[in-house]
Amino acid sequence: MAMPSKPLRIATWNINSVRIRIPLLKQLVAEAAPDILCLQETKVEDAHFPLDALKELGFPHVVFSGQKSYNGVAILSKVPLDNMSCMSVAKSDHKRHICVTLPGGAELHNFYVPAGGDIPDPVENPAYGFKLQFVEEMTDWAKAQKKDKKLIILGDFNIAPLENDVWSHKQLLNVVSHTPPETERLDALKASLDWCDVGRHYVDAQEKLYSWWSYRNRDWRASNRGRRLDHIWVTPPLVSSLKSFAIHQDARDWASPSDHVPVMMDIVL
Asked: Does this model's pTM top 0.70?
């Protein structure tokens, strides 16, 4: 009789510079023991990526795509990774996507969606237009996939789509990350393959749920002005394989933290 498969713990984290936050990665490994860790905003060229230091944390399989000072994505894994590839989205040279195939055949896509600047107008602020185009192209990619394909997309999407994904829906409607043009496009992406938003699969949409707190908040816990910018989604064939979901909120209190915290799920593949 075959033994039941052990769930894999898959985490996503905008690390905000991987080289200076290796101690935080070590702390996450000690506290949460992820099997696969997807990072965004690594901020390092491939030639200087701290590969050996990350392998020493217990991840023998590491893939990455980076650039100097900005952007950058990586996947660290305890299980073998196959078919690594990267997409160029919105005709840019930004390193914002990396994909692998996991044991069992599911594809894992790690995205870092552009922040989009401060002004929610694509004419006044081209960075906002670039963000909208980026999500539109993610949707075009998703629509081209087969409906029965086992897919996981995750990362820093830089959009808090639901009313309770932000501390104040009314006050943030004109603030980039929660504007209607962004949330409408993210809704279209979600509808493209009937994606399951794993966070809201486990936490009711009526409850507040955040993964990011600004550095401007002196006491982030007291003010709790958060946003849910970091996401994990799976296609319908994987929904029955989900086992749990968590946001590692305490990481926001660690020494020299990222303004994002790790988001993770357990899934049997």
From this structure: yes
Exposed e or buried b per residue across 5-42, where buried means at least 16 C-beta atoms within 10 angstroms of its C-beta: eebbbbbbbbbbebeebbebbebbbeebebbbbbbbbb
- Answer whether 199's CB lies under 8 Å from 248's CB: no
pLDDT recorded at residue 197: 98
Q: What is the identity of the amino acid at 124?
A: E
Q: Give me the amino acid identity at 268.
A: V
For residue 218, the model assigns a pLDDT of 81
C-alpha–C-alpha distance, residues 109 and 250, integer Å: 26
Taking 50 as the pLDDT cut, the residues of the chain under it are: none
145-187 residue pLDDT tens: 999 999 999 999 999 999 999 999 999 999 999 999 999 999 9
The gap from C-alpha 225 to its chain's centroid, in whole angstroms, comes to 20
Report the C-alpha gap between 148 and 152 in whole angstroms.
12
CB 94 within 8 A of CB 70: yes
- Give CA angle at 41 (177, 202), nearest 5°: 55
Q: What is the DSSP string of 213-233?
A: E-TT-TTHHHH--EE--EEEE
pLDDT, residue 217, reads 84
226 near 212, Cβ under 8 Å?
Answer: yes
Tell me the C-alpha distance between 228 and 247, whole Å: 10
Is the separation of the CB atoms in 183 and 163 below 8 Å? no
The reported pLDDT for the residue numbered 140 is: 97
SS3 38: strand
Alpha carbon 87 to chain centroid distance?
Answer: 16
Which two three-digit tokens encode residue 256? 């020299």
What lies within 8 Å, CB to CB, of 88 at 6+ separation is none
